[in-house]
Here is the input.
Amino acid sequence: MNRVSQPLSVTSCWIYPIKSCAGVSVGQIDIRKRGPVGDREWMLIDESGQFLTQRTLPQLSLIQPRLTDDAIELTADSFSPYKVSRKTKGQERTAQIWGDQVLVEEPDPVASEWFSEFLKQSVHLVKIGDRYSRPLAEKWKIEDGENSLSDGFPLLLANETSLESLNSELETPISMKHFRPNITVRSPLSFEEEDWLELQSSDSTFVMTKPCTRCVMICNNPEEGIRTSKNILHKLGELHRFENKITFGINLVPLKDSPLKVGDTLKVIAIRQQR
Here is the structure.
């Protein structure tokens, strides 16, 4: 691998306490092998146990979770706020995330009713429990890497320069909220992040598994909770593809527990020689 020195400043950090609900901008994330503490440790499932996202329920972006030490405070439009304990255990059940079956817990049936009323369909709010285990897919396995309730990897990094490149092709610019990263940086060239194989902070190393393949979910308006059109995905595909797939951002696996805060420096220590 070619070794390079390319300092990058972390420009923002995000966590998503409930999968596919609104994100929370934070000054620092505390990274564990499953990802940032508090990130996608909860999600919604239907009656069959299938995970639910903005792919089919764009209005999930209107639900604002706020973390406290022992609870998640939920607000959504004109709905009465509701507080869910983060420490209460609950009934264990099986959930499906893509090809993975995982054991989760439903600690608060009243919270499930709150979500069901908002979404106008029966759903269950579940969380990672004591017996939860979800190793990374064998193809991408790095050391003893695991995953939270995110789609496939512990961390997502995005480049603000790539977003600016996309916005130059759109009639109406969009924000980084459409792409839901945990970490953002700014580099000189758009989409060069897809060639960064390893990055290093002062406390840890992050290995890139693959660029993040994108779907219709980026066409949702996160501020309004609706799908506008497929134009964003179409324009991104015209502008840039990786191995003929529409991608934006890169999936990372941390090699050790560490904090990372806004203003910290990341160094690219290995790059892809050729595609």
